[in-house]
């Protein structure tokens, strides 16, 4: 690599790093993810996303106007061949407190889930319960997970296609019992950026062997669909995510969110001008933008 190429690579990485830190900082502010004196338990799986999250949180902590602590936690699920030395050695280089939690969820999953079936659901529930309990044990006030924008959008389509629910992953979530708060600092980050970031930082990535070998997982199908959409229409995933932030319950069909049954007629106020003059509509002046929002018709 010549000197010009090296300078260009450094310049591109600096732009990437600033973009990721800005996105994480904005997500934290928008959803009040981290507050004064918080103890943030960063859950590190060994994948690129959680490594990037931890790295960015540590950098932001150094420059943040508030004081908060970051604790790294890995749940060792006792998967065969899992390289137990990698994460402790990496955490040692960061000079931050860390814990390795030993919990044999692997055996439970393999016992309960038939061969060839998706293990992700049970695995995530077992993992969540263990991490929730451990967060209380160490006094952590926030649990940080490494889900990014692509994960959130994929989850929404998974729930729509396979669960008949309009539901995704929230940037911030309080557990059902109210005892824990989960945050997703990478909410505004794209996976493509995180891949480039992890490659440049040379994180010691550990693949998930529990479910990674299963083919045709539903999430992989959704991911492929979104990648194709993004290629054909750049920015589509960002727009889908923005739609999750811009919800109009009265324009959907959930009777629990909006009272469709009791909609009184009220003509006491000023009438909205919604009539078209006949002269205004002709084949020569019809614009496509007129038909983009037809939900109120």
Keywords:
297 residues; alpha/beta; Rossmann fold; 6-stranded mixed β-sheet; 9 helices; 6 strands; 44% helix; globular
Radius of gyration, CA atoms, in whole angstroms: 23 Å
The number of helices is 9
> What's the total number of strands?
6
CATH class: Alpha Beta
Largest sheet: 6 strands, mixed
> Would you identify the CATH H-level superfamily?
HUPs
Q: Terminal Cα separation, in Å?
A: 60 Å
Query: By helix and strand content, what is the structural category?
Result: alpha/beta
Q: How would you spell out the order of helices and strands? A: HEHEHEHHEHEEHHH
Structure description:
This is tRNA-cytidine(32) 2-sulfurtransferase. The protein is built from nine helices and six strands, in the order αβαβαβααβαββααα. Residues 212-216 have low confidence and may be disordered. Helix 6 packs across helix 8. It has one domain: HUPs (Rossmann fold, 3-Layer(aba) Sandwich), CATH 3.40.50.620. Strand 5 and strand 6 form a beta hairpin. A six-stranded mixed sheet has the order 3-2-1-4-6-5, sandwiched between helices. It is globular. It is of the alpha/beta class and 297 residues long.
Summarize the structure.
This protein is of the alpha/beta class and 297 residues long. Helices cover 44% and strands 10% of the residues.
């Amino acid at each position: 690599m010549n000197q010009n190429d090296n300078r260009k690579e450094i310049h591109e990485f600096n732009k990437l790093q600033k973009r990721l830190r800005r996105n994480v900082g904005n997500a934290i502010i928008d959803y009040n993810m981290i507050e004064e004196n918080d103890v943030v338990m960063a859950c590190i799986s060994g994948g690129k996303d959680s490594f990037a999250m931890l790295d960015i949180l540590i950098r932001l902590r150094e420059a943040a106007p508030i004081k908060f602590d970051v604790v790294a936690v890995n749940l060792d699920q006792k998967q065969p061949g899992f390289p137990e030395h990698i994460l402790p050695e990496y955490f040692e280089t960061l000079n931050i407190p860390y814990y390795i939690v030993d919990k044999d969820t692997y055996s439970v999953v393999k016992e309960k889930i038939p061969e060839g079936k998706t293990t992700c659901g049970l695995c995530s529930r077992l993992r969540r319960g263990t991490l929730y309990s451990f967060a209380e044990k160490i006094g952590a006030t926030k649990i940080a997970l490494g889900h990014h924008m692509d994960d959130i959008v994929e989850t929404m389509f998974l729930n729509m296609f396979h669960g008949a629910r309009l539901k995704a992953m929230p940037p911030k979530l309080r557990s059902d019992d109210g005892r824990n708060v989960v945050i997703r600092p990478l909410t505004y980050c794209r996976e493509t950026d995180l891949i480039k970031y992890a490659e440049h930082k040379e994180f010691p990535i550990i693949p998930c062997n529990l479910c990674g070998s299963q083919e045709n997982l539903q999430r992989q199908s959704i991911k492929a669909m979104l990648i194709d959409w993004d290629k054909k229409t750049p920015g589509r995933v960002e727009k889908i995510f923005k739609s999750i932030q811009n919800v109009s319950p009265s324009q959907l069909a959930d009777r629990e969110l909006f009272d469709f049954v009791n909609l009184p007629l009220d003509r006491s106020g000023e009438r909205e001008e919604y009539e078209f003059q006949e002269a205004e509509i002709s084949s020569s002046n019809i614009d496509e933008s007129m038909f983009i929002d037809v939900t109120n018709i």
